[in-house]
Design brief:
Blueprint lengths: L9 E2 L7 H14 L7 H11 L3 E3 L2 E2 L15 E13 L2 E10 L4 H13 L2 H9 L3 H11 L1
Parallel strand pairs: 1-4, 3-5
Antiparallel strand pairs: 2-3, 4-5
Helix pairs in contact: 1-2
Protein name: Mannitol-specific phosphotransferase enzyme IIA component
Organism: Jeotgalibacillus proteolyticus
GO biological process, one term: phosphoenolpyruvate-dependent sugar phosphotransferase system
Length: about 140
């Protein structure tokens, strides 16, 4: 997973004003890094309308709808660190991890993220991290 989480996919100290803006920022990174087409970002927002991607422990994992999997060019992740938090359907989110999984890889990505983020200490470390490398190393330690 750490191979998919590169420094250029991480945005430190993001301050989106809304859940929609947070999803937009996470999706934009996926587009800019060549993991998905432009059409994937609206599909991430649609997916959020169906069911919240809030996972607990201040973490949300937005991803596209089932129909949007054709918009995924390669598996990749985006990571927004939001120390001030943003509201996701009434819940405070401090980490937004955008996922694009090619050929069913999103389930593996989700489980790896869940392993790291199920430990509140890891979430606190990720929220407090001051560099992209620090974030990547927290995920690497959990692998």
């Amino acid at each position: 997973m750490s191979t998919l989480l590169k420094p250029q996919n991480i945005k430190l100290n993001a301050s989106p004003s809304s859940q929609e803006e947070a999803i937009e920022q996470a999706g934009r990174i996926l587009v800019e890094q060549g993991y998905v087409t432009e059409s994937y970002v609206p599909a991430m927002k649609q997916r959020e309308e169906l069911t919240s991607t809030f996972m607990g422990n201040f973490v949300a994992i937005p991803h596209g709808t089932e129909e949007a999997k054709t918009e995924v060019l390669a598996s990749g992740l985006s990571f927004l660190q939001i120390p001030e938090g943003v509201e996701f359907n009434g819940e405070t989110v401090k980490l937004v991890i955008g996922i694009a999984g090619k050929d069913g890889e999103h389930l593996e990505l989700l489980s790896q993220i869940a392993i790291v983020c199920s430990e509140i200490e890891n979430v606190e470390k990720l929220v407090a991290a001051s560099s992209e490398e620090e974030i990547i190393s927290i995920f690497e330690e959990a692998e």
